[in-house]
Amino acid sequence: MPKVCMGKIHFPGDKQDAVGVKYRFYVESPAGWRGEFTPQNHRHFSDGDGYIIELEDGRKGDCYIRKMVNRVIATVPPVYSYYFRGSGRLSGPTE
Fold first, then answer.
1. Where are the beta strands (DSSP E) in 1-95?
2. Model-level pTM greater than 0.85?
3. What is the mean pLDDT of residues 57-86?
4. Number of CB atoms found within 10 A of residue 21's CB
5. Residue 66 gets which letter from DSSP?
6. 13: enclosing H helix or E strand
7. Where do the structural domains in the chain lie, given as residue ranges?
8. What is the average pLDDT score of the chain?
9. N or C terminus: fewer CB in 10 A for the chain?
């Protein structure tokens, strides 16, 4: 199983602070990449909307997310896990 890393999800076009996330990166190829994440704090994400993910190594990419309905952390309010998927290359410091 891929290791858990720390990253951030940014809301494009919004002045909100980025949300810290724990993520697992499953696939990276020239055609696309994907994984799953759990936010550090409760924050609402809309299924199918575009966000920017920043990985632990500083690379960033546009991604779309979808809530994992079977993965909830029992807190008040509940914290959900999400799938993320992007296409193309990730850009950033390790290029």
1. 5-10, 19-29, 32-39, 50-54, 60-73, 79-87
2. no
3. 84
4. 23
5. E
6. none
7. 5-87
8. 85
9. N
